[in-house]
Amino acid sequence: MKQQNKYETLKSVSEFALESLLYEARLYPKPGLVDPKSCGAHTDMNYSTFIDSSAALAPFLTQYVDLGFNHNGSPSALFEKVRALGQQAEAAMLRKTKGVNTHKGANFSFALVLSATGKLMNDKQLEIPFTKQDTAAVFNYVKQMAKGLLLKDFADLAYKKQLSYGEQLYLEHGIVGIRGEAELGYPTLTDSALPFLRKYYNSDQRTLFLMLLLHLMATIEDSNLINRGGIYAWQNVKKQATELLQTLSINSSEKELEHALVLFDQQLIKENLSPGGSADLVALSFFFGRLEGLF
Q: Which keywords does UniProt give here (predicted)?
């Protein structure tokens, strides 16, 4: 990769990541989630909060890519570097949002994905647009980076006096959350979300991603939902999203889709439920769609 092309390509990758965060924020209507017209089930944040948060994370998105590109050690060593930088990014985000957690999960995932992308762009001389095989290589490298993450992070939980909510979910219900998704190389994206986007990328983009959001809500282990409403509420949201998918399709009219999702949003607001895990995966899906030149 020529020097000039290298910097242009690395810059494009980090720009795609920022664009993905902003795209997810402005996608409307999203049940229970913040968008330009609704705060969803959140009382402490709005659309502007997400813009501010994305701006705070922007320089770190670039640094994640650079960190991977310049890394010469093992995948696990890169993980430790990226986690340390990710903690700095999270602190910057929280300063900007005055303590409101907007992108903690997304920051974790983009730190892994962007550093792995940078690493492989150097090692394999990958160019944009990525092929499906290039994308698969990134997820495989993330899997190597996150190997043993659950065991390491959740060791000796039974002996800890104070547990985070994620730790409680793991100990009581075996819910692995985003750590488990990362350790497995994001199978939700590789096996479901990205094949869906590749199949229907010529469809109306807004409809495509709203349908993807519904699909994710119907299938994934969303610790944000469980945190707010418990296991039963999460399972109920999955059931309702599944039922909507039986009545809606990629060919549904914009009016029909928007009406159904606005009603779902109103319901989740009443129940104080927010599928934040699904939202993060929507952003990641958009990122890889941009990398592969689908959009």
A: ATP-binding, Nucleotide-binding, Transferase
